[in-house]
Amino acid sequence: MLHIPALEKLVHELTKLPGIGPKTAQRLAYYILKSRADYSEVLSEALKRVSAEVHDCPECFNFTDSDLCKFCSDVHRQDDIICIVEEPSDVMRIEASGGFRGRYHVLHGALSPLDGITPDDLRIKELFLRLEKAKTQGTPIKEIILALDADLEGDTTVLYLAKALQNFNLQDHDLTHKIKLSRIAHGVPIGGDIDFVDDRTMNRALENRVIL
Amino acid sequence: MLHIPALEKLVHELTKLPGIGPKTAQRLAYYILKSRADYSEVLSEALKRVSAEVHDCPECFNFTDSDLCKFCSDVHRQDDIICIVEEPSDVMRIEASGGFRGRYHVLHGALSPLDGITPDDLRIKELFLRLEKAKTQGTPIKEIILALDADLEGDTTVLYLAKALQNFNLQDHDLTHKIKLSRIAHGVPIGGDIDFVDDRTMNRALENRVIL
User: Fold this and answer.
1) Which one of A10, A185, B3, B177 has the lowest number of neighbouring Cβ atoms within 10 Å?
2) Which of B3, B26, B35, B44 to mutate to test the interface with A (most CBs of A within 10 A)?
3) In this model, does residue A37 exceed pLDDT 70?
4) Distance from CA of B65 to the nearest CA of A (A)
5) What is the pLDDT of residue B50?
6) Which domains does chain A have, with CATH numbers?
C-alpha cells in the first residue's frame, strides 16, 4: 500500500515469525520505525550478533556460544545418563525444575512422516555416535530419559528411538552395557508443549518415568 | 538461564516490541536461531535498510523513502483540504476506503497530559507553518478534517486543535480565508483504534463529518 519497498520487505520478513500475521507484522514494523532512531539498528545488531556467536554444541546440540555448552562442560553433572529433548527451550524447562543433573541431547524436532521429518532431519545419528563413543571410552551411558512432547510426533519419535536403541543394545552379546530407556511420566498434559509445564509437574514426570 | 549473552540481548530487544512479552520474545529468538542460517541475517538487513531508507515526509510527516511521500507528490489530489491523523497506519486505513482525495498531515501521536505528551511532542507546529505557507502562496487551505482516534487522547487533541485553529482564523481580520474544521463522524466505534475500522464505516465517517 505505501509503496515503500524497504518497509514492505521488513513486514514480509516479520510475517515469517511464528504467531505473527500480516497485521501484527505491520504494527511491529511501524513501531520499529516510530521508535527512537537507533532501535532498529540495535535490533539489527542483536540479530547479527546472535547469528555470528550462537551455534549448536557439537556434543549435545543445545545452543551455545562456547566450544561446548554449559551442560556438557559442567564436570559436576552425571555422565552416564542422557535426557533427550526436542528443542533447546525444553532443556531450559527441565533445568528450571531442578530434577535432573545428567547430560542432554537435543534432537531439534520430532519425527513427523506427514511433514516429511525423517530420522535424517534430527540429531539421531549423532546420538548413537555419542553412545558408541562413550562405550569405546569405557564410560558407557547407563540410561536414556526421553523428555519428548506428549503428542503424535513425540510418540512416533519415542517408538523409533526405542527400536533403534534395542538394536544398539543387541550389538553387545554379553549385554553388560545394556542401556536402560525411560520416558518422563505423563504428568505432562497430553497434547501440550513441554516448554509450558510448571516445575512440580515436570519433577513428577521425571520421578515417575516409565521403563520401556 | 542459558548464559548466552548474545541470545539474552536479542530476547531483551524483542520484548521492547508492542505485545511481545518475555515468553514470546524467547520463542521468537529460538525460532530465529533454528531457522535456516540466513534468516537472522535477512531480518537484520531488512531492519538496517528500513532505518536507512525510510524517513518522515517533510510536508505531511507520513513515512516515505523519497523526498516527498506519494500523497504529497501526487498532483491529482485536492490541495485545499487536509486530513489530520495520529499515525501513518491511519493514512493507509483511510486510503483503503477510497473516500478521501485530499492531503494528509500525520501528528505522530495524540495529546495525553497523563503520559506527558504535549503539543510540542506532536507535529502541530509544523501543521500551522503549513497552513501559513499555503496562505502566503495564495493557495489557502479551505478545510481540515480531523480523523483522530475516538478515545480520550483523540478528543483532547480535537479540542486543542479546534482552539488553535480558531486563533489562527482570527488573525485574518476580513475572514476571507477562514479554514473550516470538521471531524469524521462517530461511525468509528468509541474507544476503538482507527486502524481497525472497515471500509464502509470509514466512508460513512468521512461523509458525515461534523462541522465544529
Assistant:
1) B3
2) B44
3) no
4) 6
5) 87
6) 5-53 (1.10.8.420), 56-211 (3.40.1360.10)
